[in-house]
Design goal:
The structure holds two protein chains of two kinds.
Chain A lengths: L9 H11 L8 H4 L4 E7 L2 E6 L4 E6 L7 E5 L4 E7 L4 E6 L13 E7 L6 E6 L4 E4 L5 E5 L15 E6 L10 E4 L7 E6 L3 E3 L2 E3 L1 E6 L2 E6 L8 E4 L10 E8 L4 E7 L3 E9 L10 E9 L6 E5 L6 E6 L4 E6 L4 E6 L6 E9 L2 E11 L7 E6 L3 H4 L4 E5 L6 E5 L4 E5 L8 E6 L5 E5 L8 E2 L5 E4 L6 E6 L5 E5 L6 E5 L8 E5 L6 E6 L9 E4 L13
Antiparallel strand pairs in A: 1-2, 2-3, 3-4, 5-6, 6-7, 7-8, 9-10, 10-11, 11-12, 13-16, 14-15, 16-17, 17-18, 19-20, 20-21, 21-22, 23-24, 24-25, 25-26, 27-28, 28-29, 29-30, 31-32, 32-33, 33-34, 35-36, 36-37, 37-38, 39-40, 40-41, 41-42
Chain B lengths: L66 E2 L3 E6 L4 E6 L5 E5 L4 E6 L5 E6 L4 E8 L2 E8 L6 E4 L5 E5 L16 E6 L6 E6 L4 E6 L5 E6 L2 E6 L7 E2 L2 E2 L38 E6 L5 E6 L4 E6 L5 E5 L4 E6 L5 E6 L4 E6 L2 H4 L5 E4 L7 E4 L5 E5 L7 E6 L4 E6 L4 E6 L5 E6 L13 H7 L1 E7 L5 E6 L3 E6 L5 E8 L4 E8 L5 E5 L4 E7 L4 E6 L5 E6 L5 E5 L1 H5 L4
Parallel strand pairs in B: 12-16
Antiparallel strand pairs in B: 1-2, 2-3, 3-4, 5-6, 6-7, 7-8, 9-10, 10-11, 11-12, 13-14, 14-15, 15-17, 18-19, 19-20, 20-21, 22-23, 23-24, 24-25, 26-27, 27-28, 28-29, 30-31, 31-32, 32-33, 34-35, 35-36, 36-37, 38-39, 39-40, 40-41
The chains are: A mainly beta, B mainly beta.
Chain lengths: 537, 557
């Protein structure tokens, strides 16, 4: 085996030495504790793990020549580590401590760790939340409870949330803690809008999804009361659960799709005069739109002045084009049942001009055909605008590859080896890709040039180049449990990291564009870095 | 007649008028006509050997819920005992509790005040809406009331049982009880009165100070200022031979302590001839009526109760009082003649009556424009495909050719445009082999008439012309089309300036249409279990819809 570049940390040896010393009465409990970590989470050229016992993040900088490991304290009882969107930062949510002998009570926190090494910011969210949602631009985050959460406290309020402005430093007003008005439910999820112009001012809204109602929070004006919109009347026993939101900023409208409802709910945010300084200056009006049986996906189509909603409803085996302003619906029957919509702009076999089109397909193995829908003049042409393309096998899941003008279809069924298809959206051809390993966990590199797989039973990584469909594989020192893409930096191509099962930390870094064993780097033991410098919290 | 009970300024009328009696013409007409081609109207002499045409038909369409105030639209929900109050500007909805079974709802013209009869609790709820919300206050009213009439000044309303309304049942209430509601923000109150048998219509003076309840027994006059408590309101009879004794003060009005008893006015022995087309002059001084099937016109001086009759020499098939009340137009169909009868002078001096022969035409109905500048003459009794435009300033007649027979006519408030609704003959317009004329005759439709140029545009429709509304500035009309069997659910936005018609497809069958002057929007109420309404900006055509009135009312912030 060619010798890869290695670094054996001094700390590893020191740790071993410390463990070997006999008769030491002051042995730190940390040394005997199992190492439990969260992560890793990629941010820029770093990977961050969180040592839950030590309440510290270990940031491994893969761009540094020395592969430096930086230790950053986080709050007690960390439960979640996620990357901050559009920022080279990692957020670590900690539940804090209720207080133990020798351990004072500590509030829940959200620590934001910079990949570039800037000082971490710690926002005191207060309660022991266990979930974080964030806006698509990473500006705001909301810490909240998952529905099944237990707090480990005598009492807790499942509808409490903390709104964090991540662009602003921690302060008494940041985070803003509040309790979401409840009609008996608890938040299932939190979604965020893009900037929605209301009264001429763009707003970012947080939409808290609960059973049978949604709650709108104006994050731009967090001091204002939330707005709660019921989706059913009190006597309605249906378990309506909102599961999908679409935002139409140009029409100031939020569309909500819910399980157990055949209607789509259009919430138009109409400007109103606020009731006082903390009153909202908008109010949603509801428009229930009949959407066939069991609508399963929706998408906005058309220009802003003629915006319509495209909905697929597998229960009625059709697609519907809904004009929410007039409540009119055009039904398009489908040959193949569909439960997902993918909008794209591409030529078609009969039209060389790129135009808005839709791919309608079914996941979950429901259908072995997909439908292409021409969106132009759909109201009049209806079924004439549908082209059905047969596939060899039912589709389990699909992945959009917009930069390639294709969709990767996964036909793998449980317990079998993988089969993929690459569906060319313009030519409407289907190229099969066979795999001898399961494809669960397959990952694209950051440039989406290759699809990577790393089966746990063999010390090899496989890939397929998506431009040539050329396969390849790289032999590793040990099996990998996970593949993590890293973006390129400073003119260097992206990389992929294979994680190996080792409690002290072990990984292999490969050049994503030219993956070779000879140029790979193996790093081990980084989770034990500075172990002897630590003390138990 | 354009708006008898609701001022034109309030918004628009859905009352289509072709006047006459709907009860006299049994059996299909046997007179010949050319169903497809242009029809030359028979002259009076040509009619001589023909079967007498049926009476002119008056088609009266009333607003259905929703109803509009100045900015808000109100929709009663009898099953939830609530009224949805919809802000036409923001589409925000409040659900306001009322009494038991709110059903019959009207608004005060131009104001955000709604009145609704709670049929199960025999109360009337008064809803007043401001920017800060809606208040609701209830007063007891007569049991069985199913109709409301609001005075033009919005200070009084009448609740009564109208046996002519669809679904009205005599078992539901008295034929002669009536409640006068004084609308006072400080304290609404109601007084119960007894009036003549079977109220047929309620009219008001222009100033809203008095109401006139037209009943089978005559006219019950209500002077609101004089009503202090429950009482009997004797009638001013429309019959020549049954005159109730008038007091020396000339009044037997409600509130007059010296009013004679009801018995004094009953004319039990008279072979009654129901009066038709009773109109009141805007000042409340006179009532004028025609008697169906007779050549008699009657003028009742409502102050002195004096009745004056004249015989105009031919059966009067329609009668319309000018907006000023200075004269009436009567149509003598047999002679194709229009009489301009000064009020009251025409009843004292027959020589003051101007007679205009509509030569070569067959007219039996008249509709006067709201500004009194012109009138349309036409017939609904024969499939005549023409109307006659009569200028009333310098009397002149102009024939306007239609492509279909006339069912009803309405003027825009500014009188610049008229809308003529047509009949459709039986048979499918798409049947193979039929000609263009037959296709047109078998189709539903309406014609827009520019009254200045007499330009007419026929619009065929996919379904019978339903309720329609003309917006207050006269710029647009909205026409509803509904045919559930053929899945027609459509509104047409009609520019009354260009006659360009824009179709608005609806997600559910339209029920009612009206204008909200405060926001320049038309509303289209629709048949939807959760409640659905679509607002249309009448200038731009922009649409907004709301579905689920109860859900919308439960938005909490």
């Amino acid at each position: 085996m060619p010798t890869p570049s290695r670094r054996t940390f001094l700390s590893l040896g020191l740790a071993a030495l410390a463990l070997a010393l006999p008769g030491c009465p002051e042995r730190d409990a940390l040394l005997d504790a199992p190492l439990t970590v969260l992560g890793p989470v990629a941010a820029a050229q770093t990977l961050t793990w969180v040592d839950t016992r030590a309440a510290a993040a270990r940031v491994l900088d893969l761009a540094s020549p020395t592969l430096a490991v930086r230790s950053v304290p986080v709050g007690l009882d960390p439960v979640l580590a996620v990357a901050r969107r559009d920022h080279d930062e990692v957020m670590v949510l900690s539940r804090g401590s209720r207080g133990e002998p020798g351990v004072p009570p500590a509030p829940g926190t959200l620590a934001v760790i910079s990949a570039a090494g800037a000082p971490a910011r710690t926002y005191t969210v207060g309660s022991p939340f266990n979930a974080v949602s964030q806006t698509s631009d990473g500006r705001f985050a909301i810490a909240h409870y998952l529905p099944s959460a237990t707090s480990g406290r005598l009492l807790f309020n499942p509808n409490e949330i903390a709104v964090v402005d991540l662009d602003a430093p921690p302060s008494a007003a940041n985070p803003a803690r509040r309790t979401v008005r409840s009609f008996g439910g608890v938040p299932n999820a939190v979604a965020f809008s893009p900037p929605m112009p209301i009264n001429g001012t763009p707003r970012t809204l947080a939409v808290v999804l609960s059973d049978a109602y949604v709650t709108l929070i104006d994050l731009t004006n967090p001091q204002r009361a939330e707005t709660t919109v019921r989706l059913t009347l009190p006597e309605d026993a249906r378990a309506i659960r909102p599961t999908q939101l679409l935002f139409d900023p140009e029409q100031s409208t939020v569309y909500a799709r819910a399980e157990q409802s055949n209607d789509v709910y259009a919430l138009r945010l109409a400007p109103v005069t606020p009731d006082g300084p903390d009153g909202n200056d908008f109010r949603p009006t509801i428009n229930q739109l009949a959407a066939g049986r069991n609508p399963s996906d929706m998408a906005l189509i058309g220009e802003a002045s003629a915006r319509k909603l495209l909905v697929v409803s597998p229960g009625s085996r059709d697609a519907r084009v809904i004009d929410a302003r007039a409540n009119t619906t055009v039904t398009v029957p489908l040959d193949a049942v569909a439960n997902k919509i993918l909008l794209f702009a591409a030529p078609s076999p009969r039209d060389a001009t790129p135009a808005p089109r839709a791919l309608l397909y079914a996941t979950g193995g429901l259908a072995s055909a997909v439908s292409f829908l021409e969106l132009a003049d759909l109201d009049a042409r209806r079924g004439q605008n549908v082209e059905t393309v047969q596939l060899s096998r039912p589709v389990l899941s699909a992945l959009d590859l917009p930069e390639r003008g294709a969709v990767m279809l996964d036909h793998t069924s449980a317990g079998t080896t993988g089969q993929l298809s690459l569906l060319d959206l313009a030519r409407r051809t289907v190229s099969p890709i066979f795999a001898e390993v399961p494809l669960q966990g397959a990952t694209f590199d950051s440039d989406r040039q290759r699809l990577w797989v790393a089966p746990s039973y063999t010390a090899r990584m496989g890939y397929i180049a998506l431009d040539t469909f050329g396969p390849g594989e790289v032999r590793l020192d040990e099996p990998a449990t996970r593949v993590i893409p890293l973006p390129g930096a400073m003119g260097r191509p992206g990389r992929v990291v294979a994680l190996h099962p080792a409690s002290a930390g072990s990984l292999t870094v490969l050049d994503a564009a030219n993956p070779q064993r000879e140029t790979a780097r193996v790093v081990r033991g980084f989770l034990l870095d500075s172990l002897l410098d630590r003390s138990a919290p | 007649m354009w708006l008898t009970a609701v001022p034109a300024a309030a918004c628009m009328s859905l009352a289509l008028h072709a006047c006459g009696d709907s009860t006299g013409g049994a059996g299909a007409p046997s007179y010949p006509y050319d169903a497809g081609a242009f029809v030359d109207a028979p002259s009076a002499s040509q009619d001589a050997g023909m079967t007498v045409p049926p009476p002119e038909v008056e088609e009266r369409r009333a607003f259905q819920t929703p109803q509009a105030g100045g900015r808000f639209v109100y929709v009663a929900n009898p099953t939830r005992d609530t009224v949805a109050v919809i802000d036409s500007s923001t589409l925000a909805i409040q659900s306001v509790e009322t009494g038991d079974g709110p059903t019959h709802l009207v608004t005060v013209p131009g104001q955000d005040i709604a009145l609704v009869i709670n049929v199960n609790s025999h109360t009337l709820s008064v809803l007043r809406t401001t920017a800060s919300g809606t208040t609701s206050r209830s007063v007891p009213i007569v049991a069985g009331a199913n109709a409301l009439a609001v005075a033009p000044d919005g200070r009084h309303a009448l609740a009564y049982f109208d046996s002519t309304l669809p679904g009205a049942s005599a078992a539901n209430g008295s034929f002669q009880d009536l409640s006068v509601i004084t609308l006072d923000p400080a304290m609404d109150r109601a007084v119960q009165l007894s009036v003549g048998f079977r109220p047929l219509d309620v009219l008001f003076t222009a100033d809203g100070a008095s109401a006139f309840v037209v009943t089978e027994d005559g006219i019950s006059i209500l002077r609101f200022a004089a009503i202090t408590g429950p009482t009997i309101v004797p009638n001013v009879s429309l019959e020549d031979t049954a005159i109730a004794p008038a007091g020396s003060d000339g009044g037997v009005d409600a509130g007059d302590a010296s009013a004679p008893s009801l018995d004094a006015t009953v004319d039990a022995g008279l072979a009654r001839v129901p009066a038709r087309d009773v109109s009141i002059t805007p000042d409340g001084r006179y009532a004028i009526a025609r008697i169906e099937g007779t050549s008699t016109l009657r003028l009742v001086d409502l102050a002195t109760r004096a009745i004056t009759s004249i015989d105009v020499g031919g059966v009067v098939t329609d009668l319309d009082v000018s907006p000023s009340g200075g004269y009436a137009l009567a149509v003598v169909r047999d002679r194709s003649q229009v009489l301009r009868v000064p009020i009251p002078m025409g009843f004292a001096d027959a020589t003051t009556i101007q007679r205009t022969d509509v030569t070569g035409e067959f007219v039996g109905s008249v509709t006067i424009a709201p500004d009194g500048s012109r009138a349309l003459l036409y017939t609904t009794a024969l499939p005549i495909e023409r109307v006659t435009l009569m200028e009333l300033g310098e009397p002149s007649l102009q024939v306007v050719r239609m492509r279909k027979a006339v069912r009803a006519v309405a003027f825009a408030p500014d009188a610049r445009t008229a809308l003529v609704v047509h009949t459709a003959v039986g048979g499918s317009p798409t049947e193979a082999g039929i000609g263009l004329e037959a296709q047109i005759d078998r189709s539903f439709g309406y014609t827009l008439v520019d009254t200045a140029t007499r330009f007419a545009k026929l619009q065929l429709t996919a379904a019978d012309v339903g309720p329609f509304a003309i917006v207050p500035d006269g710029s647009h009309a909205f026409v509803l089309l509904r045919d559930d069997a053929r899945l027609v659910a459509e509104a047409q936005r009609v520019s009354l300036r260009s006659f360009v018609i824009e179709s608005v497809a609806l997600g559910s069958p339209p029920l009612s249409v009206g204008a909200v002057p405060g926001t320049a929007r038309a509303f289209i109420g629709q048949d939807h279990p959760e409640g659905r309404i679509t607002f249309v900006d009448w200038n731009t055509g922009a649409l907004q819809s709301v579905t689920g009135f109860e859900l919308n009312s439960r938005v909490v912030d």
